[in-house]
Protein 1
Amino acid sequence: MRVALLVNMTRPNAYNVACDVIGELKRLKVKVYIQRELSEFFSDCGCEFGNSEDCIRNCDAVISVGGDGTIIHSAQSAVEFDKPILGINAGRLGFLAGLEKSELGLLCKLVTEDSRVDKRMRLSVKHYEGEELINEYTCLNDCDDIQVIQGSL
């Protein structure tokens, strides 16, 4: 199995949680891909490095370490390549996280396929001026760019 690990290093506990995730995945004989810009942090972990798109394209699943915002951002990337995503909370409260740091032993269920995938709906918004399509946005759980909507409703 191959997993793309996306880590939000701006979260105070993300590095420690990511190291624990890597350790557990390595124990399970999972190949771990991490985005190249994080290689300075994880160079001694035995992971493969590449750009985010290639990491996701070449994996079987995506694991996102951070908070809800990190999981949402990672989900937008994972959906492009039809990859399932598992969020692991690195903060105080993660409504979208599938696992907490204390539950990393459950990662074995990902490998043995003893887990289920919940399908989530996304919202697609198209911004038109007259007949001209100005932009199209998709969102999961929230919308980042509210300024686009102002004055158009």
Note: Helices lie at 14-27, 39-42, 52-57, 68-80, 108-111.
Protein 2
Amino acid sequence: MGVLTLLVTGAAGHIGRAAVARALERGHSVRALLRGGAPFGRQDRLTVIRADLATDDLTLALKDVDTVLHCAAAMHGDEAAMQRNTVTATERLVQAAGVAGVAHIVLAGSVSVYGLKSVPEGHVITEDSPLETDLKHRDAYTRAKLAQEHVVIGGPCPATILRIGAIWGPGRLWNAHLGVAKGPVLIRLARDGQIPLAHVTRAAAALVAAAEKGPSGANPLNILDHDLPDRARYLAALQAGGWPKLVLPVSWHALDRIAAHLPGARRPGLLRQATLHARMKPVGWSAAKAEAALDLPDQPGFEALMAAALEAQ
């Protein structure tokens, strides 16, 4: 591996900041592209660029870049916000990267693109599992991340798609696979089934490792923690930090039967079967392909990572 010049988009975000730190740790030269957010401190081999992917000229940002680590995407917002900040931003980046002669784009994608309604309980989700087709009953984020994959794969630059699990770590311990939170109370809709977690340091290491490997036939790749807890184990560890105070179990099967008979798509997410299955169906998750393809560092077990996250809160 030689020293690479990496452009990290979304560098002010949770994954982006961690990717910048990991790339610098590995000795690479980094251009951190961000639209807003807190600035980085002065560091050798780090250049900060402020730009909006959806509107600004990216020529100088991409000049002499070897690989783009594309972490920028809208995490919240309506359909218009997702289109602008995820899909349109990616379209403009990919085309500009092609003109600049960038050798490789690594996309921080999402496991939310899988459709679980057609798979049985206990099934292990791999890269060969079906993608979501019932898009009207999923959220704008899932639709945008699927579209983003299509843009990157269909673009002029060789690409690697990393389907990253639910990002967690210090300051980010909640995820939608746990249930419904109401103040100190959590309504837990499922007990079993692994949560597709990806610690922020795991995601960052995978992004940089994919850049170092370069374009390959190993694509897409699920990026997940090596030690994935089920929901009961996750909540037991989380409660050691004082939340939730009370867990109320509700059968996701009962909710599924209700959702099956409710008309229309304009209803809360978990009352749409496609969303309910994607978040709550008890399944397993595999990242074996990524672990074989990428040079990923060893990772502590789940309880050790959770204890460190709680201590840092």
Note: The mean pLDDT is 95.
Protein 3
Amino acid sequence: REYFKEVIATGKSVISDPLYSVGNGRHIIVVAVPVRNGNEIVAILGGCIDLSVLSDLVSAKGGGLGKVFIVQKDGLMVTQPNEEFIMSYNGRMYNRSYSDYKETISKMIRGETGVAKNTFQDGDRYLAYAPVPGSQWSLGITVPASYVSQQLYYLPVYFVIITVCLGFVL
């Protein structure tokens, strides 16, 4: 396996690209870690993570409001709240009329970090993205633009209230 060869060659932990497991009939990733005796690698410890479990873990961090997903280097969704999209949906290749989304996915693939406003079928959303350390993946989270606007609406009100209160105190 390439990931074991990479661990031996580099001496660093490796997260594999998603693989199809014949054993359980699902997509998995392999995490391989070198076991050392001094400076010498004496063994490799490997473990498998089911992508649907990883997707559930990542989605739980979204708090229900946002949608969290991971994209690999070719644009394919590694994790996604909708399980049927895992390893079958490619953000760059999908025939969408939303070019801003394709551009954001391209930035994610290049390993960039940022925030973009994208148009989706259910309305405008802000998409924040950043590379996942130790892999060639990028993590993205979308939040409805209306939610962000609503939160920013109250910011000046809070500022005025705090300013008036401080004015009375002074």
Note: The mean pLDDT is 80.
